Amino acid sequence: MTIITVIGAGSASFGENTLSALLRSRKLKGSTLRLVDRNAQSLDIVHRLANRLNKEWDAEFTISKHTHHRDALEGTKFVVSAIEVGPREELWKSDYELTLKHGVHQPYGENGGPGGFAHAARNIGPVMEISHDMEQACPDAWFINFTNPMVRICDAVNRYSKIKVVGLCHQIYAGYGMVGVALAKDLGIEIPDGLEGMHADVMQHPLQHLVKQQTVPLVDIRAAGTNHFSWLLSIHDRRTGEDLYPLLRERFFELDPGFEPLTRRVFQDFGLFPIPGDTHLCEYLPWMSDPVTKPWEKFNIRLYGWEAMAGLRDFSLDRLNDMANGILTIESLIDTDSEGALEMIENVTCAGTHYHLAANLPNEGQISNLPSGSIVETPVIVDGAGIHPVHAGALPESIAELNRRELMVSQLCVDAAIEGSYEKALQCMLLDPMIRDMHTAKNVLDDYLETYKDYLPQFCK
């Protein structure tokens, strides 16, 4: 049996999906689960729900709750982390709006752009505290990361600690969704009325899920690149083995031009299909912030619904509380998806063999023309010996250059946050594809560091 520590367990979606997936596992029956969250109230909800699932599903887990990670690390084999320095929506909105004061319109501002710097810098501190404590308490454990910005968080753990890190993200399924829409008639996929695209609109999520559900069993996608910036290398029919890339090139351009228009244009100009969908793709491209041409309008880039998502999170916690109290049935938790955490833990623990569509690991040559040691996303094989990247080869040089720039910006961000280096933080801003003026880069950085000085004390030396 194994010991699993979940940090950020009080998150509504994380508590629901990962928790229920682990407790459903027959292979992990009898293991130890330690739940950690700084928010004692949400932690209590998830802990009580875990106890109910443990009893009703006969999981035989030993479950404990902790408000500090240090109390839950000794001897653990897996640390699953989904922490977020909050309040998430308020800070994200602030990251976005602050740059507008300086004439910079970053199209999304979560993982790339100046907002990606602020977001990463806030989260890197607590993540490094966890990883350094792991070096003492459980040096051989895997750190399974869900915290964004994915590349920057995993890079920090990989380069500034001795801990093994893997980053998991479900964004490859946006690629499956777009492929499903494009090849719907060829594959017999039903597209629900009202589906507009793969963007981050909570009202669209159920419709997107319906398409992805139908597409995944029918086609095999192989993608590689960096998180939220990966590229479709091959696509085949699972039933016949047919190469579907030529058909995708034809069918995607027959769709309404309003369907994922940025993906459409990048596919057309670079010849390779981008996986993440417009919402995330826009964060890394140097052509998306021009104040004169306003590309965010041309490509209909939609912002994250900050207020709606904050409200949904509160609603979801209330729902979990009702489940914990026995007021609601737990039937809806039978089919939840841990987004890869379960597969990593089961197959390493039980010496299985599992092919996973996408995971983030240090580059050991799996993408030959991206920097060695940088965090890249490829398929992986998971077995009793660990998590191993699948060789993807070289990306087309033009695309590799786009990814290389983002990797360099990410590494400068990490170095700046770890060292408290103003010089490296400024260089990070100057190289960011959203920044077009040297004075603006400095003004944005200074404003961020002043606004977030309580979160970023390393820069106040």
Side by side, the strands of the main sheet go 3-2-1-4-5-6
Mean pLDDT across the residues is: 95
How many helices in DSSP terms? Answer: 17
How much of the polypeptide forms β-strand, as a percent range?
Answer: 5-15%
Question: Oligomeric form of this entry?
Answer: single chain
Q: What class, by secondary structure content? A: alpha/beta
How many strands appear in the DSSP assignment? Answer: 11
Topology pattern, helix = H, strand = E: EHEHEEHHEHEHHHEEHHHHHHEEEHHH
Describe the protein's architecture and organization.
The protein is an alpha/beta fold and 461 residues long. The chain has a domain at 172-298. 45% of the residues lie in helices and 15% in strands. It has 17 helices and eleven strands. Strands 3-2-1-4-5-6 form a six-stranded parallel β-sheet, sandwiched between helices. Strands 9-10-11 form a three-stranded antiparallel β-sheet, with helices on one face. Strands 7-8 form a two-stranded antiparallel sheet. Strand 5, helix 5 (150-160) and strand 6 form a beta-alpha-beta unit. Helix 4 crosses helix 15. The relative contact order is 0.14.
